[in-house]
Amino acid sequence: MLPSFEEYNRLVYSIMDIPSVKGSTLILKPIGATVWELEGEVEFGKGITLSISEQINFELGIIARYFYLVCRGDERLYWYDPQPHPHDPTLASTHPHHKHVPPDIKHNRISAPDLSFDKPNLPFLIEEIERELL
Predict the structure, then answer these.
(1) pTM (2 decimals)?
(2) How far apart are the C-alpha atoms of 78 and 19, rounded to whole Å?
(3) Taking Cα atoms as reference points, which of 28, 38, 19 lies closest to residue 129?
(4) How many Cβ atoms from other residues are within 10 Å of residue 21's Cβ?
(5) Using CA atoms in the order 88, 92, 95, 101, what is the torsion angle rounded to 10 degrees?
(6) Alpha-carbon gap, residue 29 to 7, rounded angstroms
(7) Beta carbons within 10 angstroms of residue 90's beta carbon
(8) What is the pLDDT of residue 52?
(9) What DSSP string runs through 2-55?
(10) Degrees (nearest 5) of the Cα angle 114, 89, 97?
(11) Which of 113, 124, 121, 126 is nearest to 38 (CA)?
């Protein structure tokens, strides 16, 4: 289950305390009584950006939908989405979570065991960028 709204809010707005983060336009905004959207970008060095779109239901304690895109300048390096691909057996272990990677980024997908609907994904996404791109 996701942390409370207050804890999630603290996570989002303390992102600038992370040394690798150079800027953030993240905003958490209500779209219903218990549903919020997290939208914006996190900027890192070397021209790396992480675009985030989440819809979060705090009453149910879940991320109802997400899309995460990592770019270097205008180049899309990879993205994550939970669009089901039930006929792809390589994704079954983490269904529906997966990562689109080059080559043929739109159709080349790998499993994403570190993503979840019931815990914040932001810490993992930042750690992955720090480990692999910076």
Answers:
(1) 0.94
(2) 23
(3) 19
(4) 18
(5) -60
(6) 15
(7) 11
(8) 99
(9) PPPHHHHHHHHHTGGGSTTEEEE--EEEESSSSEEEEEEEEEESTTEEEEEEEE
(10) 25
(11) 121
Distance, CA of 79 to CA of 68 (rounded, Å): 5
* DSSP letter, residue 65: E
Residue 89 pLDDT: 85
Tokens of 114: 């570190």
- Find tokens 């994904």 and name the residue: 121
User: What pLDDT tens digit does each residue of the chain (134 aa) get?
Assistant: 899 999 999 999 999 999 999 999 999 999 999 999 999 999 999 999 999 999 999 999 999 999 999 999 999 999 999 988 878 888 888 889 999 999 999 989 999 999 999 999 999 999 999 999 99
| Token reading at 23 | 């800027």
SS3 92: helix
Residue 17 tokens read as 């305390």
Which residue in this structure is represented by tokens 């549903």? 35
